[in-house]
Structure formats: C-alpha cells, structure tokens
Amino acid sequence: MAEDLEELLTVREVARRLRVDDTTVRRWIKSGALEAITLPHRGKRQAYRIKKSTLDALMRGTTPAS
Questions:
Q1: Structural domain includes residue 44
Q2: pLDDT of 65 strictly over 70
Q3: In what order do the strands lie in the sheet with 48-51?
Q4: Is the backbone of residue 61 left (phi > 0), alpha (psi -120 to 50) or beta?
Q5: What is the pLDDT of residue 13?
Q6: Structural domain for 40, as ranges
Q7: Structural domain total, the chain
Q8: Left, alpha or beta for 52 (phi > 0: left; psi -120 to 50: alpha)?
Q9: What is the pLDDT of residues 18-61, one digit of tens each?
Q10: CA dist 21 to 13, 17, 41, 46, Å?
Q11: What confidence tier does 64 reach under pLDDT thresholds 50, 70, 90?
C-alpha cells in the first residue's frame, strides 16, 4: 500500500535533479534505461512519471527493488 502512495516526479523534475536536458530523460525512458509510468497522451508529447525511488536508485548506482 505504501508503494501506491510513492511520490512521482515529472520528466522536468528528474532532468533538473540530474542536471540534464528533458530530452535526455525522455531518451532514457524510451530506451528502457529509466523505468517510468506512461500516462495517457494528451498533448504534443507523451507524458511520463518516474518514481522517486527509481531516481534515488539511479543516483546511488543501484537497481530499484520491484
């Protein structure tokens, strides 16, 4: 249940924390290098959300526990 309440980050938030461009984060998601939740397409670009634990694991250099 706690997993359901986990904080989700936008592509822009992840990009800022990693100090990379939004396009780089999107490329990582599309290549499978970064796990993300795909939201229904509503605008020009596909919307994604990244779990904070996934980002934390990436920054530590470990794989997130599923």
A1: yes
A2: no
A3: 8-9, 48-51, 37-38
A4: left
A5: 97
A6: 2-60
A7: 1
A8: alpha
A9: 999 999 999 999 999 999 999 988 778 899 999 999 999 888 88
A10: 10, 10, 21, 16
A11: low
Closest CA to 12 of 40, 41, 45, 42: 45
Contact indicator for 64, 51 with CB cutoff of 8 Å: yes
Q: Please tell me the number of Cα atoms within 13 Å of 19 on its side-chain side.
A: 1
C-alpha–C-alpha distance, residues 8 and 61, integer Å: 19
Question: What residue type is assigned to position 58 of the chain?
Answer: L
What's the CATH number where 56 sits?
1.10.1660
Domain contains 12 = yes
pTM of the model: 0.80
